[in-house]
Hints:
Layout: E1 5-8, H1 18-26, E2 36-40, H2 49-65, E3 69-72, H3 78-81, H4 84-91, E4 95-98, H5 103-110, H6 114-124, E5 128-132, H7 134-137, E6 142-144, E7 153-155, E8 164-166, H8 169-175, H9 177-186, E9 193-196, E10 200-204, E11 210-214, E12 218-221, E13 226-229, E14 234-235
Parallel strand pairs: 1-5, 2-3, 2-4, 4-5, 8-9
Antiparallel strand pairs: 1-10, 6-7, 9-12, 10-11, 11-14, 12-13
Amino acid sequence: MNGQIALLGSGEYLPVMEPIDRYLLDGLRLNGRKPRVVCLPTAAGAEGDTSVDRWIAMGLDHFQRLGADVKGVRITDRDEADHPRWADLIAEADLVYFSGGDPLYLYQTLAGTKAWAAAEQAWGRGAAYAGCSAGAMILARYIPDIRSLGMKQVPAFGKIPAESVIPHFDRMKLWRPMVLTTARKRLSGDRFVLGIDEETALVGRLDGEWQVMGQGRVYIIKKREEFSFSHGQTILLV
């Protein structure tokens, strides 16, 4: 059975997101052993060692405090994404966690690699997947290029039925309103865009209900209508 998915608008590894990460860890069936967590800073791979080191350190500290056996997976380019040592580590994980950064870089680094195949293998046997910002965006059908105000988009992994995921949604509506306008124009029929506010997550399974968790709201945006949901409310993504 495919594991849970957590789509986070922002806040990875911060105290405000601890209840969400505890929920993911508590949902694993581990027969009393420690959960194995892998933290991937891949979306920040083009930002340099300082940024990558910071994300790894934050992930290690965060999940160690939550009682997990956690490893940093330093995949920053396609060569590393195809290295068997990382693929084996990811495939054995109980929670695969992608922190934020550049979604286009993240997708282009992972697509067709051993690392992504291992993440799918882990998720397919019941491991949880958590993606913050860029890590959430790559699961939709398309990734909008925020720098081009959404005028350009690239195909993504298409694991969830949303056309695209827009994280930092509360800030994005003010900072880049054209991204949403452009995304909405492309929609037809029942197609939709997911908007996820900062410090907020949408958690669920592909074959069941999804729950909003956190301080903000989650939005389902269609061509001519929009629905918003707050903490504790459930959504069906179809």
